[in-house]
Amino acid sequence: MKYTVSVLQYKPEFLKPKQNFALLSSMLKEIKSDLIVLPELATSGYVFAHQDEVAKIAESIPEGEIFQGFRALSKSINSSIVYGFAEKAADKYYNSSALVNPDGSYDIYRKIHLYFREKLFFSPGESPFEVSTAKSGVKIGMMVCFDWQFPESARSLALKGAQILCHPSNLVLPWCQQAMITRSLENRVFSITSNRTGTEINGEHKHYFTGKSQILGTKGEILIRMNDTEAGVYSVEIDPELASNKQVTEMNSVFSDRRPLMYYLP
Ligand code: ACM
Description:
By secondary structure, the protein is an alpha/beta fold. It has one domain (3-262): Nitrilase/N-carbamoyl-D-aminoacid amidohydrolase (4-Layer Sandwich). Helix content is 21%, strand content 31%. The strands form four sheets. The protein has a six-stranded mixed sheet. It starts with a strand and ends in a 13-residue tail after the last strand.
């Protein structure tokens, strides 16, 4: 099966969701792809100092205006889109990822492993990692940024049948892009990490985001890796079915050779 997957990298303007959405739409409107991954908190920026900033840009699903905008964009360019956003649900806020599909279906993942000051503003997701269905029935697994640090995230998604890990990110530590090579290879799945760029400063709080967004093959091959600062969209054609081959040698499989009873997983 031929399936075009894409990664987008850019620098959002803090607390300007409509302006950022307009820029993202213009970057994507000519793209011919089946699945596009955007950064974490893709239209809001990241360096929050107060809860009221989160409250100002958070959206409820499905009525959120940006969410509806991404649904319409997905339909008009005929591509699934995965993007990160601040979600409001009842009296809680989550650092979430949305999958929107051209047929109008969608899915939401709420970040399970919160990073640093995110813990001041967001609740951790309470639903386990689950596989979602993107365009043409392809199985994807959403994880958000710091989830990379916990190998159980990618492993859970792969064991549940994910063919492609979709990984919206706002990376500030230097290790993730290399670590994701291992996540892909140890699970034999594709992965798409979309990172943002630039420095964001809010009062005394400041982060530099490391770029280097990437698309990896099932053996950890770097199919695409952007540089630290560029903005753009890169695409590559893959065969998602390759992710069903878990063999390492004729006698070894990364899944059926597992010995769960020998592991310590409290
Ligand atoms: C991160 O999880 N945004 C570092």
